[in-house]
Amino acid sequence: MAPTEPLTATLRLEGAGGALTLPRATARLTSPGGRTSEAELTLGRVLIGQSVECQLQADDPALSRVHAELVRDQDQVVLKDLGSKNGTFIDGVRVREAVLTLGQKALLGGSTLTLDPGGAPRTLPLSSRASFGGAVGQSVVMRVLFAQLERIAQGDGGLLLLGESGTGRELLARGVHDASARRERDFVVLDCRALSSQVVESELFGHEKGAFTGAATARQGLLESADGGTLFLDGLTELPLELQPKLLRALESGELRRLRANEARRFDARVIGAADPDLRARVRDGSFRADLYYRLAVTELTVPPLRDRREDLPLLLDHFLRELTPPQTFARLPAPIRTLLLSHHWPGNVRELRNVGARLALFPEVSPEVLRLDPAPPQHGVFRGLPLAVARDAAVERFEREYLQAALEASGGVMQRTAKALGISRQYLHKLLTTHGLASRDE
Fold first, then answer.
1. This prediction's pTM
2. SS (H, E, C) 100-119
3. Could you give the angle at the alpha carbon of 287 between the alpha carbons of 50 and 172, nearest 5°?
4. Higher confidence at residue 261 or residue 185?
5. What is the tens place of the pLDDT at every residue in 374-411?
6. Which terminus of the chain has fewer Cβ atoms in its 10 Å neighbourhood, N or C?
7. 134, 171 contact by CB (below 8 A)
8. H or E segment and range at residue 398
9. CA angle 131, 175, 181 (to 5 degrees)
10. Helix axes 349-362, 313-321, angle to 10 degrees
11. 347: cis peptide before it, omega within 30°?
């Protein structure tokens, strides 16, 4: 492979799905002191900067905390500056976004980024279907993901799904359960976010009568409820650190002990975890236990954000619009609206797209102003006529934003004070504020 050859993959389509042959490439970031950080580029994105959440890091004061990202699809590798202070340069020209080829160099702060060939090409099977469970997608990146999940569903090992909120991680986890030998038993969900340590422990392991104030009766925990089935742990990055060794022991031994119980109970549950993309950074900084991470991540997959699979937008909108009254299709929308939808950044991912579909059904006179394509929820309380799931999402989105606004005002806009008042972590509050387009005074 010539150093200047673009990193174009070969797509082979067959009746059974086909395969994607992806030329290997390694990104190397070299700091001014000569230290090198490496990451192999598969489909998806790699962050570059000083922060521990970045896969490519350098000890470089001129490098921003999260300086830039590399995004690879089946056609190319794109370098995107993420609003860095000192800029990103290729051949002496400052760039915001540029396609990189093998052998090219870029300057980020005082550090040098290079793309080098990485050996024999990687072959990735493609699913023959444009859906998996309740998730929909016909893009190459989603068909690769569906093929991996179809294979994983036939086994019984742990699975970790990394991705942004709203990308459909729970739908994919449920799809794995429904395609597995455990399909006849329960699929049990625990959202680890916004729960106190005691509540999470009781939810996971159960409790005996009198275990704490208000425990009037004994209660089975979710690990027991998932016996023979699947337990889905959502928001895994928010699992309290003090509970992580107890969960690890339970998963390794197949035994749990309810709060205030004297005897252990056997259980057999497959555990699928979902976490934000910064989970590995949490492992590196010690806020998430490495041993639990490796126990859960027997297989680790990344669910792409909607902005990285825009070709799925028409299919997804058709999927959502068919559920509504009256039914609608993407092709029948006015051309300006279709252009607006295709160009939007979609910070709320598929969840945001679903709510936009609901607005399209609510308002016959469609206009960009009505769609409100920003992180804010609709101000209209008209949910009548929508499917329950769509109406519930829209109502919760509106409630969350108004609730967060009120909490920020009551706490003087201070992040730490607001998080304490709400009983959630500062990191989780930051994610909620970002989702809803809000900011604390600290920011």
1. 0.79
2. ECCCCEEEECCEEEEEEECC
3. 90
4. 185
5. 544 333 444 444 555 555 666 666 677 777 887 888 88
6. C
7. yes
8. helix 388-410
9. 130
10. 50
11. no
